[in-house]
């Protein structure tokens, strides 16, 4: 059974752990002192990217994530996690730049505007204060779109969804299943 590490300091980590269990994976909660060597993949969940960013920087987790990326094993960032993996820069968050996308935070509205959308490839996407992917570099592959806007992308072993796949585990094309197979 594969073991997937889930960043746990802030955000939807517990929901990813539940989703991984339902989908047949073991999980390990990632905190500052976690050893990444036994992991087959990593998930950076949704939450508040500014808080998550500060924790990563203050605890050298950014370096561990970058090092893990070099192993070529998959990393999935969902929503705030996608912001952390991107090359987005602001006064609060400087993404790790592991995937050549830029992002606009909170593009799809506030918490109260959360909803399940039907994507252009007929999947379901649960959007909660989702960012928009505003630029994709040449090496980025677009895996799904919503009204022609990218919502699921990859560059090599780095995957991002601006939606929450952990909430839709019943979906047969769930990105978590596709990525950590
Ligand atoms: N809007 C949040 C941020 O910018 C992300 C929202 C989410 O992860 N659901 O950090």
From TrEMBL:
Q: Which SUPFAM superfamilies match?
A: Class I glutamine amidotransferase-like
Q: Which InterPro entries match?
A: Class_I_gatase-like (IPR029062), PdxT/SNO (IPR002161), PdxT/SNO_CS (IPR021196)
Give the Enzyme Commission number: 3.5.1.2
GO biological process terms on file: pyridoxal phosphate biosynthetic process; pyridoxine metabolic process
Record's catalysed reaction(s): L-glutamine + H2O = L-glutamate + NH4(+)
Listed under GO cellular component are: cytosol; glutaminase complex
Q: Which GO terms describe its molecular function?
A: glutaminase activity; lyase activity
Q: What is this protein called?
A: glutaminase
Q: Which organism is it from?
A: Candidatus Aquarickettsia rohweri
